[in-house]
Amino acid sequence: MTHVPLSILDLAPVSSNGDTTEALRNTTELARRAESWGYQRFWVAEHHNMPAIASSSPAVLLAHLAAATSTIRVGSGGVMLPNHAPLVVAEQFGTLESLHPGRIDLGIGRAPGADQRTALALRRTMQGLSAEDFPAELAELIAMLAGDPARLQAVPTAAGLPQIWLLGSSDFSARLAGLLGLPFSFAHHFSAAHTEPALAVYRQSFRPSQWLDRPHAMVAVSATCADTDERAEYLAKPGWLSFLRLRAGAPIRLPTPDEAAGYEFSPAERAFVEQRRVGQALGSAQTVAGQLSELLGRTGADELMLTNQIYDLEDRMRSYQLIAELSERQTSGHALCLSV
Predict the structure, then answer these.
(1) CA 52: distance to chain centroid?
(2) What is the pTM of this model?
(3) DSSP state, 221?
(4) How many distinct structural domains can be found in the chain?
(5) Which of 99, 103, 139, 249 has the most CB atoms around it within 10 Å of its CB?
(6) What is the spatial distance between Cα 104 and Cα 58, in angstroms, rounded to a whole number?
(7) Are the CB atoms for 163 and 75 separated by under 8 Å?
(8) Residue ranges of the chain with pLDDT lower than 50?
(9) pLDDT at 113
């Protein structure tokens, strides 16, 4: 029997009838509840110029979340390195690790998480925005955090390092994570068709390092759980509609479930939603348990990270609590886990 820890990825969703203050307050409350339920990690994602997402500044938000909790690991899922000078990220996460030793995760991605105009506004130059530059910038960031005497050293310098993860939705980051011997988190929630091939590349290319002696993979999966399958689908629709609008270049705040239920999906939109549903965990606790166990069986993931875009905070928390209740607690560490 394999025990797989569970974690949460949150986007600080901004509702159509709310604002960013409410969204960040909700994320803080969810982090506190996640800790009480025994989740292992609570990550926030970097997105920019998106009205439905308030987590545009992960380092600032993580400082607040770490101060509002006491045991759960908090981290970025992720920091999009092309948007930032490596020294800035090293200083931010060196500061976080100094403030909260042993609780900080630095998840790093190579996508900008924004359109080209926004990416240029962030970096002020197109230099460092190509995939070819990413491995060198990642190596520079790690060296700065590790205090490599041959590199500029980031200050504050923590006694230990944040746990560094590479994030990806393709085999590029999977291969790089393997070659560097880093833990790897795959974005199954928006690239389900590529999950198993990417994990295979990661494991095949893995080289033992100072970080790991064997591959360690986490799979991020969209999980919406409610008392019934029908209720779960009703709660999931706002996220689908929000993503459709984003994809069409007209992003909106997260609509209410009633607004989403009343939306007339075109045949093309309906087909796209059905495609995105593949690989999601969606339904009652019993249904979701089966879906997550099947995902674990196929991928051999060492950890699962759950995410959703549920409109109401109580429904959002209820979803994660239901999944927590169907998990077993490890006797050491108190991390939630599924048994497969």
Answers:
(1) 16
(2) 0.93
(3) E
(4) 1
(5) 103
(6) 12
(7) yes
(8) 1, 329-335
(9) 61
